[in-house]
């Protein structure tokens, strides 16, 4: 497995694979990799001849008061995990390699980004779309892999790939959890012992919401009230949002009569965690 730090090296390697007629999968990440990322890489390896994992903490998707500086990083461990999972190349650029002096072109989206995480993180999706567009242009993969953990991001990227005619298959992958149900996240490392315990309330609340839908409840307000009530029963939790939206348009729903995304963002202490489930998907 190679580690490339420049766009040029990455392009040269991918060009060589292309000349050999090999297919290429891309897994974009911010590093500090865990089993969730690994599941994406493993799937990509099973569906492509060569897999590129990008490891880049993208400054453009962080707001001014967010955790860009403290975001955890461990390249040695990441490289070992990628190698074990069968990746062929890690693209690990410095911010200056991705955003040269005078960088001023962006990819933004009018739909899908106003609610959920986009509401409290107003610059986030412009940063995500711009960096993913750049990664698509650098690697030109056949397929790209994204986790349902970041469900709004998955929807946004699908939409962007379609709008901008990338011709790249966008693959959504299920949420990987710890044994006790906590969704794996690089940010879980911020949690102290008591906070780690308190964080279980996200999955607990969502599981109850999911059960209600599975048993026939179709009133989105009731689902949201149940989820909200359970999260509020945890003193260390502060809700950013609890939403039920159409799993296509991401518009809020009142009656659930098709694929629905129930998503939450909750602060546990200073750490903002997200989790979700999708129900009634065919
Ligand atoms: P990140 O490094 O947090 O930007 O995540 C990189 C990719 O891994 C994104 O597509 C995430 O949705 C995905 N991912 C992160 N955590 C998980 C998880 N627990 N299960 C599945 N995919 C995940």
Explain what the structure shows.
There is one protein chain. α3 (75-85) links the parallel β3 (50-55) and β4 (89-91). It is built from 10 helices and 9 strands. It is globular. It folds into 2 domains: 2-173, Rossmann fold, CATH 3.40.50; 186-276, 2-Layer Sandwich (Pantoate--beta-alanine Ligase, Chain: A,domain 2), CATH 3.30.1300.10. A 6-stranded parallel β-sheet has the order 1-4-3-2-5-6, sandwiched between helices. Strands 7-8-9 form a 3-stranded antiparallel β-sheet. The chain has 282 residues and is an alpha/beta fold. The mean pLDDT is 98. The chain starts with a strand and ends with a strand. It binds adenosine monophosphate (AMP). Adenosine monophosphate binds next to α2 and β5.
Give the SSE layout.
Blueprint: E1 2-4, H1 7-19, E2 24-29, H2 35-47, E3 50-55, H3 75-85, E4 89-91, H4 95-98, H5 117-120, H6 124-139, E5 143-147, H7 151-163, E6 169-173, H8 193-198, H9 200-214, H10 220-232, E7 237-246, E8 260-268, E9 271-279
Parallel strand pairs: 1-4, 2-3, 2-5, 3-4, 5-6
Antiparallel strand pairs: 7-8, 8-9
The protein binds adenosine monophosphate.
| Strand fraction | 15-25%
List low-confidence stretches: none
Largest β-sheet summary? 6 strands, parallel
H/I helix tally: 10
Q: How many runs of DSSP E, i.e. beta strands?
A: 9
Bound molecules: adenosine monophosphate
What is the average of the pLDDT values? 98
Going by CATH, the homologous superfamily of the largest domain would be: HUPs
The radius of gyration over CA amounts to 19 Å
Terminal residue distance:
38 Å
Here the CATH topology of the largest domain equals Rossmann fold
The CATH architecture term of the largest domain is 3-Layer(aba) Sandwich
């Amino acid at each position: 497995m190679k580690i490339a730090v420049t766009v040029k090296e990455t392009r040269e390697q991918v060009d060589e694979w292309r000349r050999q007629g090999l297919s290429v999968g891309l897994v974009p990440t911010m590093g500090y990799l865990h089993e969730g990322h690994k599941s994406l890489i493993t799937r990509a390896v099973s569906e492509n001849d060569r897999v590129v994992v990008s490891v880049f903490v993208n400054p453009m998707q962080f707001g001014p008061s967010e955790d860009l500086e403290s975001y955890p990083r461990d390249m040695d461990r990441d490289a070992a995990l990628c190698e074990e999972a069968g990746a062929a190349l890690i693209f690990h650029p410095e911010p200056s390699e991705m955003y040269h002096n005078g960088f001023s072109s962006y990819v933004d989206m009018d739909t899908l980004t106003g609610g959920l995480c986009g509401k409290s993180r107003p610059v986030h999706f412009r940063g995500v779309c711009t960096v993913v567009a750049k990664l698509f242009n650098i690697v030109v993969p056949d397929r790209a892999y994204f986790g349902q953990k970041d469900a709004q991001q998955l929807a946004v990227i699908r939409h962007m790939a379609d709008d901008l005619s990338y011709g790249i298959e966008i693959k959504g992958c299920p949420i990987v959890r710890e044994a006790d149900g906590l969704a794996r996240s690089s940010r879980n490392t911020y949690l102290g012992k008591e906070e780690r315990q308190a964080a279980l309330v996200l999955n607990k609340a969502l599981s109850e919401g999911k059960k209600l839908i599975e048993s026939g409840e179709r009133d989105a307000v009731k689902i949201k009230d149940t989820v909200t009530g359970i999260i509020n029963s945890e003193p260390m939790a502060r809700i950013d949002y609890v939403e039920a939206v159409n799993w296509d348009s991401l518009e809020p729903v009142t009656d659930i009569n098709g694929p629905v995304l129930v998503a939450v963002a909750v602060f546990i202490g200073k750490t903002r965690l997200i989790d979700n489930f999708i129900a009634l998907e065919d």
